[in-house]
Amino acid sequence: MALEGSQLAIALVLVGGLHWFAVGMAGLAVPQSLFWIARILFPLGALGGLAVAAGGVVALPQEPAAAILPLGLPDLPFHVRVDALSAFFLVLLGIAAVGVSIFSAGYFRAGQGTAPGLLCVQYHVFLASMALVLVADDAYLFMVAWETMALSSYFLVTSNHRMPEIRRAGFIYLLIAHVGAVAILLSYGVLQAGQGDYVFSSMRAHAPQGAWASTAFVLALFGFGAKAGLLPLHVWLPEAHPAAPSPVSALMSGVMLKTAIYGLLRVTFDLLGAPQWWWGVLILVLGLLTAVFGAMFAAVQTDMKRLLAYSSIENIGVVLIAIGLATTFRAYSMPLLAALALTAALYHCINHALFKSLLFLATGSVLHSTKERNLGKLGGLVHSMPSVAFFALIGALAIAGVPPLNGFVSEWLLLQAFLATPSLPNSYLNMLIPLGAAALTLSAGLAGYVMVKFYGVIFLGQPREPALAHAHDAGWLERLGMAWLVAGCVALGLLPLKIVAILDPVNSLLLAQTLSETAGRSGWLFITVLAPERASYSPLIVFCGMLSVVAATFLAVRFRYGGRVRRSDPWDCGHPGLTPRMQDTAEGFGQPIKQIFEPMFRIERQLPTPFDERPVYRATADDHFWYWAYLPVARLTERVSRWIGVLQHGRISLYLLYSLATLVVLLLVVS
Amino acid sequence: MNAAIAIQLGQAVLVVLLAPLFAGWVNQCRAWLQNRRGPGMLQPYRVLRKLFHKDAVLAHRASFLFRATPYIRFGCMVLAAYIIPTLASGLPISPAADVIALVGIFALGRVFMALAAMDIGTAFGTMGARREMLVAFLAEPALLMVFFTPALISQSTSLSTIVHTLAYQPFVIHPGLAFAAIAFLMVLLAENARLPIDNPATHLELTMIHEALVLEYSARHLALMDWASNLKLLAYATMGLALFAPWGIARTIDGPSLWLALACLPVKLAVAGAALALLETLSAKLRIFRAPEFLAMAFLLAVLGLLTHVLLEGAA
After folding, report:
1. What residues of A are in contact with residue B133 (Cβ under 8 Å)?
2. Which of A142, A471, B58, B151 could disulfide-link to B62, CB 3.0 to 4.6 Å?
């Protein structure tokens, strides 16, 4: 039976999802067999990733295709639909899942909390539910998939549940996930506009107007923002990401945060009609705050996975900045500029999925080989783990946003979108938006700082602990998984025009405008914005130019002066007795940031006096939001529940009395 | 087209060869201003020659990153020499990278240098890396903001188009550019390890930034690092000239305008170098923790320039 393109896409995605589900369930067959789970099921799961990605690639240029699944409640079947927007995120999910699953095949070992079989179920259900979120075409299926995603990832986060701080992290995650889910549910409630029909097509047809539209938007922003780590709903992220096993952190950070971006785009650009200008400004401002905040906090972290979690907050901020600009441009009917900003957002989404997954996987390998997550006890791993060090170097450079890698391309597109803003008809916005560009560049600068710290402290220098001498490189499956993601980073960095052309159907779906025509005006080598003389960039030429200059210099120096090298002790200005403790620590690296942005942190220092026999130095930089927003709410909740607790005495007779009283009151009300 | 490629290559070779001379000129001016005789303008060439002839000494723990960094950093700076319109605008490679990409290329060189400094694991190296990144994370956004003002004026981030607009369109006074120029000067001082952020002539390790980063390098590696630093200084100078004094840069590739460009360039660079030396002579080094204030000032000025442009000249 020959399937038409769009039907084929749906079939591929559903097969991929079902495959994940089946693989997960197969894990229960022999739940203790590591060979069965790791060596057979996880590579099979990678195939599911390929199917989903292939489905996405097929679906991107096609017309949307819908289907009704004979599942769900009797009167409420599940509607699924694949359009360009979901297709793009399916590609992202598939590509990241392939790399992470291959890595996991070599990563999961026995004796770490949850049994391997259970872990396999949770992991694959998590993947399948993310795919389902992306294809859901009614609020009912969406929420079911969304909750499945939240729950399966909760179990994955708490897989080391014997540690109390991990249980605590899981609890915070679950709590905020559900606060967000309630907001999303309410948003869908507003969106159905009294129709009683929760299918997206009917919501699209009866988009609410005016204040109701804004209500739905704000609720959606809150709900999806909670999942994405938007300020001030970010507190779960730095707790949950480090707690989870590294491949799971990679998926959560690389892909799950993007499902929230998907949801926001779906509601703002698709289900709601024309946006109001302040929606875009709201997203933009929150995005800027999130980006700068994330970068600042990443710079002072001492736990490598926590550092990456804060860096994820920063990157989500960058994506939201781009979405905010796109929404603003759309509100002023400037589709070409909106397409530029939206492209930057999508590009950054897939970039972040690649490089953040890569770095989380690298920390996983480091963690396995050294049993250490604390930056203060790592160092010098470039010698004992050369391939991981190389992969992590590519990831770190990509995330630092230097050409010719992929992080730079999305940053470039976004800055170009900022530079196009003075054509907005609102003069206040024209004045304020340059400040936004300033904040964005600041967070980009900080990202470079963070990555030098991350890479330098873990992989370079002298090992800070003697045990690190026994560190070993990652196994071949782990390396293969990371190499896949590295290849993605390089490809996305060098071929931006190709990628823009691939994701252009999303622009034409959401904005009825394509970008690839204006982006490709100077030929396939260049990516241009609006016009070739306005701005163009060619990573391939930059890369080849760099390569040729470096090669020519190397050869010239080698032939002219020879390559003689003498090894000796480090010079270090003649100071003898160099010890690993003389290097900068992670705290040392964070210290200037703490000093410059002191009011942003809640800093507690415990300084030793000079006469201390056993001096202790301790400094923590905490998050103000925790103390300003969350603890008061928690205290209030506790107080209220204590008041309610007065009612409870545990005596049957009292409870019977309560029932009687309720009955009497109700009867009075009725009569 | 062939002529254009030849000019492109010629410009890059000229910049690469001239870079040590410019550094020597600045040092010589400084010496004169300080009532010293100075080593002469050709001293940087002599130093490079000496270094290239020596055998490299590497620390035991030096990894591939340490050995690759001098070449990569040198490559970055040579690439910048290709991109910045020094003699002529509209050269074949200029569409490959605009000002944002240029900032990115500088960042690439810097990240590698900082990582290489951390590679051996010495106290001074890591301290230098941290300080360098501290200066950079404030200077880089400031530099981008500096570029945004002319980019908005000319509706383009391509340096060639900016030069075209500023040099060959009817002359207009852009007040925003004045702020941008001051901010650029401050960024130039900070990024090139000049006073008041860093002292290029320091011998005291604790006050070093740039020198601390290259402490472990020797021989050809150090030569490349030094040459790259010279190139960076010259690249910033030519970038500043292209943005704020673009007159004389050839817009078409023909004999007279190229000769004019070739005649203008040394004069402009000589004046710029002397001004830089004067500025450095008049200022004292800041404590490292005053450096962020200095750079924040540059950043604010650049943003102010941008705002001034948007306010006064509005939507173009």
Report:
1. 448-449, 452-453
2. B58
